[in-house]
Amino acid sequence: MQTVQTIDCNYLGRQGFAAAFLMIEGDRAAFVENNTQHALPLLLGALERAGLTPEQVDHVFVTHAHLDHAGGSSALMEACPNATLVAHPRAARHLIDPSRLVASASQVYGEARFRELYGTIRPIPAERVKTMEDGQTLRFGQRTLHFLHTKGHANHHLVIHDPATGGLFTGDAFGLAYPALQGKGTFALPSTSPTDYLADEALSVIDQLAALEPERVFLTHFGEHADVHGIASQLTSDLHFARHLFDEAKASTLLGGALERFCLEKLEGYYATRIESRGLPMEETRSFLALDLELNAQGLAFAATRARA
Which of 105, 137, 249, 271 has its CA 20 to 30 A from that of 30? Predict the structure, then answer.
């Protein structure tokens, strides 16, 4: 049996968009990421197909507290009574007391839309949460998992190194590589979404993770990839462009929506060239990436505005 299985969480009704992972170690299991409450039947279904029960889940790992990664944590923990949630110390605080997360997201989406997207997010008892410091390890069966703090995408982000599979569970720290865009060679892009994007740190994390020489990466967006060098090369180029765009945005006098539109237009132009060079269908690919480019533009604009202060 595979020791790591990819679970498509059907996030926003889209296949191949957001994943969780089931890690199997003998007769014990762990989940990495959990998406939203709506993904719970998919996670438990994967567990059942593996011949395991919720009582055999020892750990629920989350790379960071963004809701497409950790929004289903309370529901999954309630379903798996013996599990411990493992997270970055800053992320753990938000999962023990999710009131700020819920309030912030409800303000953005509105109460009804928030419930539609994410369901109910409840507090997780502190005694069921374990925090991991940078460089700390954790034994899971015969595995020794290594945890790395990785700023750049979020200041509460960690990456899990699993030497047993030669893999890294990278959350959003090592970019996005959607299956629908991989037909003509690897196509990856970074996530510079708000509100914690840091240009220099995002670049250094790519070097840090590539230096571990992993055989594969497990990307939340999306799935297992063996072309680690190809992904790292593309992310480095894209993040250099993002750094240049950040500098432009910081130097401009544009504000608010105007600054976001400026960043979005620059990103769309840059990725149009990349899409064309890969021989991907232009309009279909741009439509597929529209949400990510919008979020990336918002993150760059937010970071530039903050840097002006």
Answer: 105
Q: Are 101 and 121 in contact (CB under 8 A)?
A: yes
- Extract the runs of DSSP E, i.e. beta strands, from the chain: 4-8, 19-25, 28-32, 57-61, 84-87, 129-131, 137-140, 143-149, 158-162, 167-171, 216-219, 223-225
Structure tokens at 95: 């999962």
Q: Are 228 and 215 in contact (CB under 8 A)?
A: yes
Give the pLDDT band of residue 108 (cuts 50, 70, 90).
confident
Contact 84, 129 (CB under 8 A): yes
What are φ and ψ of residue 271, in 5° steps?
-75, -25
Rounded Cα distance, 174 and 203, in Å: 10
Domains of the chain (ranges; CATH) run 1-87+89-131 (3.60.15.10), 133-206+225-309 (no CATH)
Asked if 169 and 218 touch (Cβ cutoff 8 Å), the reply is yes
Q: Is the pLDDT of residue 248 over 80?
A: yes
Q: Which residues pair with 143 in a beta bridge?
A: 140
Q: Considering the chain, what is the average pLDDT of its residues? A: 96
Helix (H) or strand (E) holding 299: helix 282-308
Sign, Cα dihedral of 72, 77, 80, 86: positive
